[in-house]
Write a structure and sequence with these properties.
- With 97 residues, the protein is α/β, with parallel strands linked by helices.
- It is built from 3 helices and 4 strands; from the N terminus they run E-H-E-H-E-H-E.
- The protein has a 4-stranded parallel beta sheet with strand order 2-1-3-4, sandwiched between helices.
- Helix 3 links the parallel strand 3 and strand 4.
- It is globular and about 35 Å long.
- The two termini are 15 Å apart.
- The model has no long low-confidence stretch (mean pLDDT 88).
């Protein structure tokens, strides 16, 4: 299971990383970019590229709200990852659901 971790900051990423099961391999991590970034989801670029290449099974986020400004954007981001065979899971709700 190939996992990418996306978090609010480095502390969130490290906290999630500690809970990865032995069957999971973390292939990358990224954090939410600073608010002055032109593209607010820049932290997801490498994860999306891994999904497009078929190298990603799970995008594990500290909170799904990091994927968009509202429910529709979050759903669109999840749908896009799913299109490439990767599921999106949140570590913020009961472990990594």
């Amino acid at each position: 299971m190939q996992i990418w971790i996306y978090g609010q900051d480095d502390n969130a990423v490290q906290s999630i990383r500690r809970d990865i099961p032995p069957s999971g391999t973390v292939i990358g991590t990224s954090v939410v970019p600073e608010s002055s970034t032109a593209f607010p989801w820049n932290g997801l670029t490498q994860a999306m590229c891994a999904a497009i290449r078929g190298e990603l099974d799970i995008l594990l986020v500290s909170d799904k709200r990091l994927l968009g400004d509202g429910a529709q954007q979050i759903q669109e981001m999840e749908t896009t990852f799913r299109h490439y065979g990767a599921s999106v899971r949140s570590a913020s709700s009961s472990g990594s659901s």
